[in-house]
Amino acid sequence: MKINVTSQQYNPLLKRKEVTFEIRHEDTKGTPPRLEVRKMLAENLKANIDLVYVRKMQTKTGTMQAKGEANIYDTIEQAKLVESQHIIERNVPSEKKAKEEEKTEEKPKAEKVERAKEPEKAKAPEAPVEKKEEKKKAEKKPKKKRPGIFSHYKVEKEGFKRLLPFCERCGPGYFMANHGNRFTCGHCGFTKYKPAENQPSQ
């Protein structure tokens, strides 16, 4: 497997060297592993392998030649700051990944043990929920019943007398409300003022 660096350019803003390369991989027949390419780039460019991050590789269809891109950072801190997380994970050996996962698993376990050692705080006795509900029910006042249709009529010797007029627009069945100096229909809003003689004296 041979690697050939086709171009390299330093990016002062991101503090990294941006590299493009080609690989002839007749020996492996398939696209070589990213970690092997990372090691070869570090040896070829005399760089620290921990600062080399292979971004992508692609083999041309029907050939044994692949093209790729990589970044070589000035420091590891700069790489973690700029490079995408999935690229960093792809360039980390499986042994390091396993160690990092073990560390992350140990932390929550230690926290659980510390919490178990701490004495449980005495909880204040909670008031029973049933009593509160009973009090609320007792405080509720009975709802007032709305007057029925019979309240709009008065029974006399001759028969029934209608106390409120029907709406002239809506027709029979639509009673108008009595508002002192006027009658108003709650259905259409029609208002009819009473004659001055029938108005109550203030």
Rg for CA atoms: 44 Å
Indicate the CATH architecture of the domain at 2-94.
2-Layer Sandwich
From the N-terminal CA to the C-terminal CA, the straight-line distance is 110 Å
Low-confidence stretches: none
Number of distinct helices: 5
Instruction: Give the overall pLDDT as a whole number.
Output: 77
Overall strand count: 10
Strand fraction equals 25-35%
Describe the structure.
- With 202 residues, this protein is of the alpha+beta class.
- Among the domains are: 2-94, RRM (RNA recognition motif) domain (Alpha-Beta Plaits, 2-Layer Sandwich), CATH 3.30.70.330; 149-193, no CATH class.
- Helices cover 30% and strands 29% of the residues.
- It is built from five helices and ten strands; from the N terminus they run ββαββααααββββββ.
- It has helices spanning 34-45, 76-82, 85-90, 94-117, 129-139, and strands at residues 2-11, 16-24, 52-59, 65-73, 153-155, 160-162, 166-167, 171-178, 182-185, 191-193.
- A four-stranded antiparallel beta sheet has the order 1-2-4-3. A four-stranded antiparallel beta sheet has the order 7-8-9-10, with no helix packed on it. Strands 5-6 form a two-stranded antiparallel ribbon.
- Strand 3 and strand 4 form a beta hairpin.
- The radius of gyration is 44 Å and the shape is elongated.
- It starts with a strand and ends in a 9-residue tail after the last strand.
- The model has no long low-confidence stretch (mean pLDDT 77).
